[in-house]
Write a structure and sequence with these properties.
By secondary structure, the protein is α/β, with parallel strands linked by helices. The chain is built from 18 helices and 22 strands. It is globular.
Amino acid sequence: MSLPTEYSNLGFDPDALRNKYREERDKRLRDDANDQYVEVSGDFGYFVDDPYVEREEREPMDKEMHVLIIGGGFGGLMSGARFHEAGIKDVHFIEAGGDFGGTWYWNRYPGAQCDIESYCYLPLLEELDYMPKEKYSFAPEIYEHSQRIAEAYNLYENAIFQTKVTEMRWQEEDARWLVTTDRGDSLRPKYVVMSTGPLNRPKLPAISGIDEYKGHTFHTSRWDYEYTGGDHSGGLTNLADKRVAVIGTGATTIQAVPFVGKHAKELFVFQRTPSSVDERGNKPTDKEWAKTLKPGWQRERRENFNDMVIGRPVKEDMVKDGWTEIFRKLASMVPRDPAKKVTPEQAAEMAELADFQKMNGIRDRVDSLVSEEDTAEALKPWYRQFCKRPTFNDDYLPTFNLPNVTLVDTSETKGVERITAEGIETGGKSYKVDCIIFATGFEVGTAYTRRSGFEIYGQGGQSLTEYWADGLRTLHGFSSHGFPNCFQVGFSQNGFSVNLTSVLDDQAQHVAYLINEIDERGARYAQPSEEAEAEWVATIRRMAVANTAFFEACTPGYYNNEGYVSANRGLGAESYAPGANAFNKLLAEWRDDGELPGLELEKAPRPK
């Protein structure tokens, strides 16, 4: 396979980069895959406690309801809002936190900010007549927007906060779910909507000695301002006499480390794999631009973005940021002369070359911002851009020029080797620290029910963990055979986009349609047929082949099941490959059919 001659003078050697990427991947690959993380329960359960509100005691509830939504993040909020619009009124919520917000209720670490532009990311902007203050909103504004949605759609009325589901069990005779909680509640909804989120449950590294450390610890999703001082905007003055370790260098660390580095006596950042850190370029919203927007502008914008980030051709890049730059570069490489046909193989190689060019720029940016040569080398990412979620920040890399900040590269040891009573040991060195901050992300590759924190038992007492033991089995990602009237929203065999809120919005509208159709047709419950489910799983597996090959070559992470991606493991292997917009079109055609193809409806018994 060869490219047209005009692409021969690239200024870099593609084969050398491929080899470098493979070497860097292989040295980080671990035999224990997802077992390298310990479940946050038992002795580690305090890592998921809510530090933001006092627990309010209440009497247990025993009640029936039409719909129960589990989770109060954007998935739950969008479901509640769209159900309200569809006339579904008896909707209750269960949420572990003290308010709506999900990720943006928990993530209050300094500098927390969305990495998708806010005009695409914050949902219902037109419906609520709200315009974000900046191109990339900070956490407080996003949390406030969550509350704005809940208030506008009257979702607080039936919200049950500070409550965790302990089990869901199908009751065949009543055609309802029995949902029990840690408050002793017995809730019996006809429909359950699972919106527990793909990045919901904090995870900890199963580092030897993690339970021996005597200093202070917390996870970034439960930031301890009582210990650090300050707030989201900084001012962590309590760290002035503290030696602090941060383990993990994903999106959270990129945003929080500049604030910790500014105030800590010493900061050690333990890195296994560097993130791709591009320019943030945030700016206030142009009010004059906002006045020019026509009705339907947000959907048009987010669909444009969804197409851009999977490489589908568009007439205009509406967002113009670091996410879409690589695809603008790719478009510039495609011959404009219609006579010059580009084969699929050539198109794939052009995409790879555009990716190489983009990542070369990311690595050059490290050299321009980090003064110490060895540190700069360690901070350079050697992988394709979408092997890990790209990050965008203007302050992270310069933080390593501060005399009190040290990068500890653990790539050769595949991560931190040991935690002791006084600190961390790795690479033959000891680091005595007063505090360890775990920026180790959330569980993604573990069992769904482990991530949600409870088990689901369907017809015949079968657990969802058992049913999904060999990978997800769903129709369109929403529901599974044997688990009637139970719908999932999020990433599960459906259209993927890095802009999750747009995905959740469209899914919520589809689930609202399903609930109304099931009710209007007089059914006790509905579930996918075994045949339809098997056909959809086969479709996902077939389409995932290209994604699987891409992610297999990636550095280990949650996108590729820690390097062990397969046809049914890893975020990229369980999505509808043509993307969110194509998936939404498929669902629209399915609804237009009018016969609910693939769904089995159990009709209500006739009145006696």
